[in-house]
Amino acid sequence: MDLGLRDRNVIVAASSDGIARAAAEKFAAEGARVAICSRDAKKLNAAATSIRERHNTQVLAEPLDVTDAAAVEEFVKHVAQEFGGVDVCVTNAGGPPAKMFFATTTEEWHRAVELNFMSVIYFARAVLPWMQKKQWGRLVTITSVTVRQPVSDLIYSNAVRAGVLGLIKSLSNEFGRDGITVNNVAPGYTATERLKQLIGKRSQDLGISPAEFESRLGVEAPLKRVGQPEEVADAIVWLASERASFITGQTLLVDGGLFKGL
Q1: Which of 35, 84, 93, 227 gets the most CB atoms within 10 Å of its CB?
Q2: CB 120 within 8 Å of CB 182
Q3: pLDDT per 10-residue tile (average), the chain, 262 residues
Q4: What separation in angstroms does the CA of 221 have from each of 41, 202, 213, 254?
Q5: Residues in CB range of 252: below 8 A, 6 or more apart
Q6: What is the pLDDT of residue 213?
Q7: Vertex 156 angle, CA 155 and 157, to 5°
Q8: 89 with 8: CB under 8 angstroms?
């Protein structure tokens, strides 16, 4: 199936590893030019080299803190100059720490808002004008199943990421007339470094092994396992493609059925 992404200009944020790294790889496999960023320059450059060699496509990699509005704007401007515009932007950022409410701090609340909400605004503000010029664009956010079903010790994520849904719905309403779709992908438990950290903390709290706790997570979903980054990446790439041209303002759960609602 032709996804219509060949020669498109794609930004994937916070993409040195995990779901976003897998998405960058899949965009490159479709023949897109890919720009990636991350705070970890070493891992970022390794990812860029691997993608270039594997898919023989143009890859731009720059270290970036997605909570720095000015830096995001400059990064997007550089990508547009190098590639000739921006067609697709996938926003992403690391998850905030796992905490129950009385363990939270005001400083961490502000950090969670900057990391998981304001970073989306910074990218949207920078990329949407480029998409308007072409009257075509795709903005895809990566959040979490917590936007539909809160997880007890992820209160920062539960509260802050839910705000992204209001944002993407608002942006989809405002920019649909410009041929731009805005959607959200919400992964469930997925085999990433973030999940390893959560498993380590929770298993220690319960006094069980990390392997035992991971098996418990898998049982929670009807598919009886955690997801793989590539499985979530497939959904991201599809939403960014021509095949999803009449879908906007939506949240696609990629959670193995973990969400219990209708």
Answers
A1: 35
A2: no
A3: 95 97 98 97 97 97 98 98 98 93 98 98 98 98 96 94 98 98 97 86 83 85 95 98 98 97 92
A4: 35, 18, 14, 11
A5: 183, 184, 185, 186, 235, 239
A6: 84
A7: 90
A8: no
In 3-state terms, what secondary structure has residue 93?
coil
DSSP β-bridge partners for residue 99: 154
E strands, the chain, are 9-12, 33-38, 59-63, 88-91, 137-142, 180-187, 251-254
Residue 262, token pair as written in the block: 């209708």
- Confidence (pTM): 0.96
Give per-residue burial for 42-55: e unless 16+ CB within 10 Å, then b: eebbebbeebeeeb
CATH number of domain containing 54: 3.40.50.720
The rounded distance, in Å, linking the Cα atoms of 238 and 137 is 13
| 198 Cβ contact partners less than 8 Å away, ≥ 6 residues apart | 98
Tokens 């400083």 belong to 107
Q: Which residues pair with 139 in a beta bridge?
A: 89, 182
- Report yes or no on 40 lying in a domain: yes
Domain range enclosing 139: 9-189+228-254
Residue 209 included in any domain: no
Contact 62, 78 (CB under 8 A): yes
Catalytic residues, by residue number, are 156
The one-letter code for the residue type at 141 is: T
